[in-house]
Write a structure and sequence with these properties.
- One of its GO terms (cellular component) is plasma membrane.
- This is EamA domain-containing protein.
- This protein is an all-alpha fold and 295 residues long.
- The chain has one domain (9-292).
- Helices cover 79% and strands 0% of the residues.
- Helix 1 packs across helix 8 (206-231).
Length: 295
């Protein structure tokens, strides 16, 4: 047994959740310097290089259908990162992640087709209204751009989940992920070039590159690897419960790294989303799996 195998799988997932959210908080400090697209391209370039070096994927011998799957996976991955990073320029990270989480939450509820799960998603929708301050601010003062971008990131996150599973079934180990990262980088590269033309190359100093390396490791390489190892020993129910903590961890990262504080109404909305996530991805998944358990 390796040292990693000796670590409880839930701890691996929690470490991945913390890693990706603190990576997002670090990215929020980089976006004002080189733009959202530039930040995404920098992160993806470094993460892709690391994954290609580690996974060493085969470029030949794949069926056209498998390439189509990887292409859709990479497209969802690239757009998800671009939309989320762009939303960080308008919203606190805790708010952005909570709104984004509606994507996978809705996907889980639709696939389950249970009325209770649909009600949970409706409760999460109320939570999003609360954290977006739609009831307490004039309509003209709402950060509508940030909310739309976070919702777009959530939709891409749902697509990412679907095509991630298909890619994992079609390619061994991290091979499909490495190829998808190449596609994702190609998708956002034109936007990154445009960002460079707007912000100039003078902002790309050593500090920016170090932040890019940190974001690539914290937001891509480390969490993807930890989740892959954990899911070999973890039920989907437990994984869903742990994943439900993402909005809360994002709020904590925003507070510690960025000094972003949420008011009580926004925290109430976040609690609704976390509760709905627990019901749909955690408790609901556990009960759906119950008939498959041995007596």
């Amino acid at each position: 047994m390796s040292r990693v195998d000796a670590v409880p799988a839930p701890l691996l997932v929690l470490a991945g959740v913390v890693s990706v959210q603190f990576g997002g908080a670090l990215a929020a400090t980089l976006v004002p310097q080189i733009g959202a697209a530039g930040s995404v391209v920098l992160r993806l370039l470094i993460a892709t290089a690391l994954l290609l070096l580690f996974a060493r994927p085969r470029w030949r011998g794949h069926r056209p259908r498998d390439w189509a799957t990887v292409g859709c996976f990479g497209l969802a991955l690239g757009l998800m990162n671009f939309a989320f990073y762009a939303s960080l320029g308008h919203l606190p990270i805790g708010v952005a992640v909570t709104i984004e989480f509606i994507g996978p939450l809705t996907l889980a509820a639709v696939l389950s087709r249970r009325p209770r799960d649909l009600l949970a998603v409706a409760a999460a929708g109320v939570g999003v209204v609360l954290i977006s301050q739609a009831l307490s601010l004039p309509f003209a003062d709402l950060e509508r751009t940030g909310i739309v971008l976070a919702l777009l990131a959530g939709a891409c996150w749902a697509a990412y989940i679907v095509f991630s599973g298909r890619t994992g079934a079609a390619f061994p180990q991290l091979e499909g992920l490495a190829l998808a990262m190449v596609v994702a980088t190609a998708v956002v590269l034109p936007f990154g070039i445009w960002d460079v033309s707007v912000h100039g190359t003078s902002a790309w100093d050593g500090t920016v590159l170090l932040k890019g390396l940190g974001i690539a490791v914290l937001s891509s390489v480390l969490p993807y690897s930890l989740e892959l190892l954990a899911l070999r020993r973890l039920t989907p129910a437990v994984f869903g419960i742990l994943l439900s903590l993402e909005p809360a961890v994002a709020a904590l990262a925003g507070l510690l790294v960025l000094g972003q504080r949420l008011d009580p109404i926004q925290l109430t909305g976040m609690a609704l989303v976390v509760l709905a996530s627990f019901l749909v991805l955690g408790l609901g998944a556990s009960r759906r799996r119950q008939p498959d358990l041995p007596a």
